[in-house]
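Data deposition worksheet. Section B asks for the primary sequence of the deposited chain exactly as it was used as input, without tags or linkers unless they were present during the calculation. Section C holds the resulting structure in token form. Section D is free text for depositor observations; keep each observation to a single sentence. Incomplete worksheets are returned to the depositor.
Section A, Depositor: J.P.
Section B:
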Amino acid sequence: MAAVKASAASNTVILALADELAAGTIEATPTKSDLELGVQTLADALARQANPFPDASPAQVRHPLTAGDTDETWWPWLMGLVVGRVAPGEWDVVVIDDRLVEGLDAGGNPVYPVCRRAAEAIRPR
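Section C:
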């Protein structure tokens, strides 16, 4: 059941990211005026200050490759997608690395782990 929930969360994040990226494609940008682009840029900068890791944003996250690796200082930086902010200074992140696949969902898609990390263990991409 947990694997299904994690898969659904990662699929939702990935689809939201795809929708967000489509809005900023080269085809969509020329339809905005300079004023609209300037306002959007300022609004995005303010939002990043309030939440440096918005939902569905790509990130790198420190995560162990094996369950027995407890020394966080040696954990590698792996690709991930931010699921959401769960507490002040903490985010849930889907770790997207084929070495960590936990199984397959009903559709045959890989299920990746979701971890909770503080800002120090996350880097924006």
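Section D:
The mean pLDDT is 85.
The longest helix spans residues 2-23.
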